[in-house]
Amino acid sequence: MGLIKKQSSQTTLIAYAGIIIGFVGSALIRPKFLDESEIGLLQLVLNTTALFSSIFTLGTNLTTLKMVPAFVNQPSKKKSFISFSVILGIIGLIVSIPIFFGLKQFIFKPEDGGLPNFDYSTHFFWAILLVIGFRIFQNILDAYLRTIHQPLPGVFAESIIQKFFPIIGLLLYYYEYINFQELIYFNLFIFGIPILVSAYKLYQSKAFELRKPGPFTSEEKKTIAGISMSGVLEILSGGLILYIDSYMIQWLLGEASVGIYTTLFFFGLVISVPAKSVRRISIITLSEAISKGDFSTINTIYKKSSQTLLVIGGLLFLGIWCNRYSVEAYLGDSYAQEISIILFIGLAQLVDCITSVNYQIIAVSKHYYYNLFIGFMTLALLVLSNYILIPIMGVTGAALASLISMSLINVLRFWFLKSKYQLSPFSSSSLKTLAIIFGVLAVVDFIPNLNNLYLNLLFKGLLVLIIYLPAIYFTKCSPDVNQIIQKNLNRLR
């Protein structure tokens, strides 16, 4: 847990720097510079590159994370495994081309008019495909870097590069140096930078060899094929779970609704930042522990990460939801009408925090295929619930569907790990933390808002900190959080 704590602290700092930059760009600047339809189209483009690149990596992420640690005593196989991943990445990119062109009309619906004055030309679609390629190989390089305990390049690329440069693009657009079409291209080609950073760091590490991979035994080939196939299907379901809400809103309501949904969705997504950092770091340690049969280490990571993530996630949830009045006042009426999106997405992320690294444990175990079963079951529920709720509740229905699906997927993972391995993330601290979260929410919500949105933001934010942190500290809900608080208190003395 020591390495995880150290690297998690580093990645969390970078991630939070990224979330601040991203918040300024996506929540403060973008809604003021672009209208809802423009935000909707931009987000659909970015979501499409993310979805296609994750699927057409062809499971190499999971294969790398599971197999490379297993080759710890076979350095030749370990170093050359990246060649196998690159070959699969090339195949995946080639396969993605006809599939993307076959689906582009369905995704963007230009035949219905699309965004006025936007050129849905062949160049536009080839630019998207080029960036899908960038992201495929960035995924491959990042996975390999994580196997040698170097997660920071990927975190830096995702949290800083991909958050900061879009702000530059927005400023260029606002001051009319570029038009909206060029802004889309600007956002796309930002993804060329991370792959250069990762390639350079991997080259520096000297931890790979670009040569014929293997040779693998028959058993290893069977394992690699099984993990790759399972990984493709799992990422297919997982990717659709992440992005199907945006696509269904586009199909049922239009691009403007996508813009409103994705802007408010971002506020709830802030809660997931510490969880992403912990999961990115922990999966290699979990994989190594699984290979040794060290379930004591796995259970420790499972419980401690759950305690810490729930405490931090609870603070973020309170800080955001207790300030919803300020969010409504800043963004305007079209967003204020759908403010419940933040509540439902925030609660969904809290559920994900308390169940911590359940997906990662299953992914590196011999029962990795169970994630596939859960994923498709959840996807089916998500599509059905979106189809029912969006026509009734509008974009808020999509957020409620996400909460229902997130709860189901984590209940199923919890049940599986409890029944198969007797692992559980819960303790009395979980109940104490939940009680504190909802107790603080009730108290802060009872206190009237101030008329000035900025003063109210400061006032409600300070109230949350003053009540929540002492309650968490004195009830000892998380040893790791208490250690951080105590360390900072000692500095003040």
TrEMBL record:
Cellular compartments per GO CC: plasma membrane
UniProt keyword Protein transport, yes or no: no
Keyword Transmembrane helix among record annotations: yes
Keywords, comma-separated and alphabetical: Cell membrane, Membrane, Transmembrane, Transmembrane helix
Membrane topology recorded in Swiss-Prot or TrEMBL: Multi-pass membrane protein
Transmembrane segments: 12-29, 41-60, 81-103, 123-144, 156-177, 183-203, 224-244, 256-275, 308-327, 339-361, 368-389, 395-417, 429-447, 453-474
UniProt main location, coarse: membrane
Highest taxon, organism lineage: Bacteria
Compartment annotation: Cell membrane
PANTHER family for this protein: O-ANTIGEN TRANSPORTER-RELATED, PST FAMILY PREDICTED COLANIC ACID TRANSPORTER
Protein name as it appears in the record: Membrane protein involved in the export of O-antigen and teichoic acid
Upper lineage: Bacteria, Pseudomonadati, Bacteroidota, Cytophagia, Cytophagales
